[in-house]
Design goal:
Helices cover 38% and strands 14% of the residues. The chain is an alpha/beta fold and 381 residues long. An eight-stranded mixed sheet has the order 1-9-8-5-4-2-3-12, with helices on both faces. It has a three-stranded antiparallel sheet with strand order 7-6-10, with no helix packed on it. The longest helix is centred in the last third of the chain and has 24 residues, at 253-276. Bound molecules: pyridoxal-5'-phosphate. Pyridoxal-5'-phosphate (PLP) is lined by residues 58-60, 84-85, 87-88, 130, 156, 158-159, 180, 182, 193.
Amino acid sequence: MTYKIPFNIPPYAGGELENLKTACEVNHKICGDGPFTKWCKEWIEQRTGTAECLLTTSGTDALELAALLTHVQPGDEVIMPAYTFCSTADAFVLRGAVPVFVDIRPDTMNIDETKIEDAITDRTRVIVCVHYAGVACEMDTILDIARRHHLQVVEDAAQAVMSTYKGKALGAIGDYGCYSFHETKNYSMGEGGATLIQDAAMAEEAEIIREKGTNRSQFFRGQVDKYTWVNYGSSYLPSELNAAYLAAQLKIADKINNARLARWQQYYEELTPLSQAGRIELPAVPEGCVHNAHMFYIKCRDIDERQQLINTLKDHSILAVFHYIPLHTAPAGRKFCRFHGEDRYTTKESERLLRLPMYYTLTEDNVDEVVSVVREFYRTH
Ligand SMILES: *Cc1c(COP(=O)(O)O)cnc(C)c1O
């Protein structure tokens, strides 16, 4: 089914096909780690200040690479929210580790930093914070807990490219940061991602794991005279064709970001009267957080009202969608993970949250139209 206003249109900057042509006809390089991959890597390193950025085949693989770098062992515990995409947990489950979920904050839908310390045991090794909707977790508190308990911090910053916390780029604050360039994200290469590594001393190991456990990256730089199998690894490097696509978007990243922020602000302002009337809740952006308008969501009264609103929007050819089913309630979550403490907000808030259409080419008129249907819905309910 096609919608007049779909939920997402993959970002398209205009320079992608030109770059693909260059990769094929000029660079004659379509496998991984060619000039476009290098350009994207350096762009991310410069913009975020991270020591090392490695492009990956997906956000999921960025998380897998980060999980390998943490050296978690079977039975080790990893604290994270249950309100996230399954890949956040999968990356660690694949290593035999146990995701331990703690509740989220209802204002940002991020991990509740005040619940983390109580979940720490002598098996805890890592805290994973997910910056939901590109709005930062409370990183000062999380880093302080991690320091005091000797834990590593992995940021699932899949939604948070171009967002900051107290001036620092999300993804470049914890030990490892993971970006996604899936077509549903702000910048895309179809399928793709990146792992950001804060400690330059871990870069070599990361490079080797990403290149099937070989030191091929060092070989290409002339640092070794032949390459060989030196560690365990996988193939996490994306094709140069995907990187060429991404490069066109990163080149106009500020333009894309500003366009999204303008539509986000428009939603926020036009829906403020409904929020003041107590009919819906609007997203919160805590002080010190600069977000990237990855998503615009509202919260309805409950799951039934949300479904009615989804149906009403559908009647107007507008697609709005709910989001994560909390992982501890999913079959794999019940098998591999546990929830520590009370699920006070995770399930309840996830059932109320509704995401409205948001993409680079969304127009001012589109937002007006979505808002007018939402307003009309609440006038008659
Ligand atoms: C999109 C996303 C992922 C997975 O990224 P892919 O590129 O689709 O593998 C992981 N975590 C979060 C929070 C995401 O939003």
